Amino acid sequence: MSNNHGLNDSSKSDDSDNSEQVNTRILTPTKQSRHKDKDANQVSNAFVVTPQRNNLRRELEREQGKQEHAYLIGKRRRINDGDEDKIKGIVKKYILPKAKFMAGEGLQPGIMRMHSQRGYGVPPIGQTHDFPDFTSGTRGISQVVLENMLLQDKPVEKKVAFWLTWSKTIGNCIKAHRNTVSSNMKNAIIKGKWYDEMNRK
Q1: Of 78, 165, 170, 184, which residue is the least packed, with the fewest Cβ within 10 Å?
Q2: Which tens digit of pLDDT belongs to each residue from 29-41?
Q3: Which of 86, 73, 103, 80 is nearest to 174 (CA)?
Q4: What CA–CA distance (Å, rounded) separates 185 from 98?
Q5: pTM for the predicted model, two decimal places
Q6: Sign of the alpha-carbon dihedral angle for 188, 189, 194, 200
Q7: Torsion of Cα atoms, 103 then 109 then 111 then 116, to 10°
Q8: Higher local confidence (pLDDT), 162 or 3
Q9: Contact (CB, 8 A) for 63 and 135
């Protein structure tokens, strides 16, 4: 007959459970070494990644500074014989089939002047065809022309000098092509209407 008033004596099972719990919480030497190796790897990775990002950011800021300075001094490239014909050929072959308008086309001179005053004389780089951003990595009209002129690997100052020299020529080629297409469409519509009227009579 038990004296615990219907309660089971669980002291034995409690002790065994505690001993099992203690045993499961103890790390063996091999497990400890694995944890140390894992922590060491995490620390080493953290130290390797951060300087690379900082270096990339600094390099980008340096390139952007060079680009701003190149636009501000407005140095142009020396024109060689045949360059104009070559550039017009590149525009007709590679630009016109894909691009009918230019970045920032129609941006008013007053807006550009306000932007320059706000940026202490820095032009609106990346917002207009005249001042593309050569540090952004985006592929636009300026990048396509530079690639075909074999200038994509040149320093940013040389890219800016090239663009300051030829941006108006490239822009005029695109506008002339667009005007030609527009006038041809109007002529086709007018001829079509005239032909319909003649058939009705």
Answers
A1: 78
A2: 555 556 556 555 5
A3: 103
A4: 18
A5: 0.62
A6: positive
A7: 90
A8: 162
A9: yes
**Contact partners, residue 63, CB within 8 Å, separation at least 6:** 135, 156
Cβ atoms of 145 and 129 within 8 Å: the answer is: no
Q: What is the pLDDT of residues 137-164, one digit of tens each?
A: 888 999 999 999 999 999 999 999 999 9
The residue type of 91 is V
* Nearest residue to 107 (alpha-carbon basis) of 81, 127, 125, 80: 127
Contacts of 106 (CB under 8 A, 6+ apart): none
65, 120, 139, 167 from 110: Cα distances, Å = 24, 15, 28, 20
Q: How far apart are CA 153 and CA 159, in angstroms?
A: 9
- For residue 70 the two structure tokens come to 């190149």
